[in-house]
């Protein structure tokens, strides 16, 4: 349910971008993101740090986009968020010895540290590729394609990687179970 609520602003952005222009899309994004943020706060009584940061980035980058009438400002938000996620995952793993992927999904999953580290690196690489791809999309494609990329391709790629991660986790758990059965 929460993911669906967070997806609505992307759809609003795409629709208004397609029907009008990127600035109307940004206005729709900011309004619907605010509504979604408040709805999540009311329903769930709290918001995550990622949701707060994402919302603030929409408001800040959207505000600057509208104030300066510069469409690339909102497009850079995607790159910055992806690079930020990659940096946070890397720094937490290598400097603080904490695997945030494990913290997020691993409460009831028993996997080796190596498996968690591989998952973490897989997501780091994903965020870097998304950030770099967004740079290309920002400078070498149309606003309409950017809307498609932002609203459909990136979320689709994230779902695909989540599914791949799930399969990888399942296979690793099966290997651990097989080892336990042999003991």
**Strand residue content:** under 5%
What's the mean pLDDT score? 92
The strand count comes to: 0
Rounded radius of gyration (Å): 19 Å
Sequence of secondary-structure elements: HHHHHHH
Structural class of the helices, strands and pairings?
Answer: mainly alpha
How would you describe the oligomerization state of the chains in this entry?
Answer: single chain
The rough form would be described as: elongated
What portion of residues is helical? over 70%
Number of helices: 7
Major sheet details: none
What does this molecule look like?
The protein is an all-alpha fold. Helix content is 86%, strand content 0%. The protein is built from seven helices and no strands. The chain has helices at 2-19, 22-44, 49-68, 72-94, 100-105, 113-140, 143-182. α2 packs antiparallel against α3 (49-68) and α6 packs antiparallel against α7 (143-182). The longest helix has 40 residues, at 143-182. 23% of the residues are buried. The model has no long low-confidence stretch (mean pLDDT 92).
């Amino acid at each position: 349910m929460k993911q669906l609520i967070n997806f609505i602003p992307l759809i609003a952005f795409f629709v208004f971008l397609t029907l009008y222009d990127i600035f109307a899309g940004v206005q729709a994004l900011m309004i619907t993101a605010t509504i979604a943020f408040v709805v999540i706060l009311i329903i769930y009584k709290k918001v995550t740090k990622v949701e707060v940061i994402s919302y603030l980035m929409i408001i800040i980058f959207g505000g600057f986009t509208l104030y300066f009438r510069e469409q690339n400002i909102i497009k850079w938000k995607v790159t910055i968020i992806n690079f930020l996620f990659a940096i946070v995952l890397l720094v937490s793993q290598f400097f603080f010895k904490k695997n945030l992927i494990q913290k997020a999904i691993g409460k009831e999953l028993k996997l080796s540290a190596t498996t968690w580290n591989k998952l973490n690196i897989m997501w780091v690489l994903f965020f870097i590729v998304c950030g770099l791809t967004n740079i290309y999309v920002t400078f070498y494609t149309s606003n309409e394609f950017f809307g498609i990329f932002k609203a459909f391709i990136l979320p689709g790629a994230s779902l695909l990687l989540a599914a791949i991660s799930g399969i990888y986790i399942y296979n690793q758990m099966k290997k651990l179970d097989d080892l336990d059965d042999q003991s």
